[in-house]
Each structure stands twice: as C-alpha cells, then as structure tokens.
Amino acid sequence: MPEGHTIHRLAREVADRFAGHPLDVSSPQGKFADGAALLDGAAPSATEAHGKHLFLGFGPVGWVHIHLGLYGTFRFGEGPPPAPVGQIRLRLATRPGERPAGPPHYADLRGPTRCELLTEPEKQAVGDRLGPDPLRPASDPAAAWARISRSRTTVAALLMDQKIVAGVGNVYRAEVLFRHGIDPYRAGRDLTRTEWEALWDDLVALMTDGVRKNRIDTVRDEHTPEAMGRPPRVDDHGGEVYVYRRAGLPCLVCGSPVATAELAARNLFWCPSCQRR
Hints:
Layout: H1 4-18, E1 23-26, H2 33-39, E2 46-50, E3 53-57, E4 63-67, E5 73-78, E6 88-94, E7 105-110, E8 114-118, H3 120-128, H4 141-148, H5 155-160, H6 170-179, H7 193-213, H8 225-228, E9 259-263, E10 266-270
Antiparallel strand pairs: 1-6, 2-3, 3-4, 4-8, 5-7, 6-7, 9-10
Helix pairs in contact: 1-7
C-alpha cells in the first residue's frame, strides 16, 4: 500500500497538471459513472492529502475521495488519452484548447479501495477519523501522544494505526523505530514524551524527503553504499533502508542479523541488538 509521501506527491501532481482547467471526467469501468457525470466539465479547485487519503476538490460539486488501498494506481500521461484498456475507475483529461501551455494531460485511476464523491461535511468526517499527518503543517503530534502514552499496545502497531498517526506505513514504521533504537514491541505507554517528539520530528523529515525524491531513503550519511563500500539496495520499493525487507541480512550498524515477525497481519523488521527493550 502506498505510504503517505506518495499520496502527497499525487496531490501535487494533480494540481500541477489539472488545477483550473475544465476536464473531461469519465468512468470507463462504470463504477463511478454517476459521480463522473456530475464532475464532467468542472475544473479542480483544490487538492489535499491526509495520510493515505487523497481528496480532489471540484468547487461546489464536491470532493473526490480516493484511497488506493493495496492494489490501486493513479497514472498520468501526456497527449490525447488512449482508448481505455482494463478497469479504469476514473479518468481525468484536459479538454483540447483549455490548457494553453504544453500538451494535454490525462490521468487514470485503477483498482482503488475508495473512489467516491463527497460533500464538504462528509470530507471533514473522513479527516476527523484520521490522526495527525507528519506531512500536514497544521498537524499536532500532541494529539497522537495523548493516545500513545495511555496505550498498552505495541508502538509498532500504534504507528500503523491511521486513527493515531496518518500516513505512516510499514517502511517508515520499521525505519523510524530503528533510527531511534526503540524495540517495536515496547508498549506505547512506555515511551517517553521526549522519545515520541523525536520520532515525530524524524517522520516529518523522512517523509518530506520522500515527497521530494519519490522514494524512501532512511540511512544516515555514514551508512550509504558509497560510505560503506557496499552494493546499493535492489528492491522494487527503492531507496536505502536499515531493516525493512532485510530479514537475515547483517544490520548496517552492528552486523547482527535483522529479525522479522508478523504483527497485526503485517511483516515487522527490526534489529534485536540495536533496538533493545
């Protein structure tokens, strides 16, 4: 499932390509046909990301709420849109002559968990169910701390709970805990306020870097392939990491084998030597 930095990048790209331009809006698959008919000819007026949720504003018509889930993709192209192939839930395309600078643009949404048209109050209700997002400047980490500090649940599970912290996925969860030497099985209430604030600040920095690079890099300068004389990581997620998907490989810091286990139906990765309870 895409992590929060990817959704924030999508919000920016939709704005860059389509904001202010009347669009041809369709649902070749048919599952969003009623919503597409209401939006056809409208111009996007705003884009927002909150955690793993993308919101596309179309003025008084409402907001398109998109959650990609495990299988969704949102792909962009230039030029006239090709004939639809496969299950395209939503297609956005600039109208000929309506985008004077550069070629026309289109975007195809496939396989999302959610694609629905919401009113402003309905959009707000979705946001109210989500925790603070490290990539939203107005987010208050104290709101997450209030819940974490009272919880017997493991900090690893709490970081993945979108009602507590929005946008953090399996990669950022594993990596930020490693970077701060925190055992993933520690209870939330056993964290100190100082530890939580350091985790939050690091998530803000790492995820902001992820938006900029469009990949997740979490290793410090002294642990890059160039600094250590090691081969770059090869993985379809890209980026240099300490523990994520490195089960059994030597820790880049201490050399101990990276451990893995299942927690809340997701694979957890950590270094038992660097992350002691």
